[in-house]
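quick one before i forget lol
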Amino acid sequence: MYQPGALKVVSYKKGKKWAADEVKTAGEPAKLKMEPDRNKIRADGRDLSFVTVTVTDQRGIMAPQADNRIRFDIEGPGEIVATDNGDPTNFDAFPSHDRKAFNGLCLVIIRGEPGRVGKIELTAKSDGLKAGTVAIKTVK
């Protein structure tokens, strides 16, 4: 019988604790969390930052069944190259500035404009959820 809570796993190697992980039951989707793989990219028109967007509950736990439509806005010397969500049945165009989350996740790919250094601010918004914002710097 299902009950909300936490599931923890611990693995041992040669009798010593080697790794551990814990999964907790998520509440209702409440906010957007944004994590760039890099927060500094070259202003050469080729360097990219991959920003993972996670739909979380109020406690910051990923909402694994969330499929909220997320809209992206960008300011500064950069552009949105593509968005994706890993759903093979989703046919939204990659350059689209909005995308539905799939299993609580979405991806935005940012590129710096050639020769323009400064701060790029990427914002993710979705109806009923607290917006997320991340800053990425472009450098020479």
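fyi Residues 79 and 111 are 5 Å apart (CA to CA).
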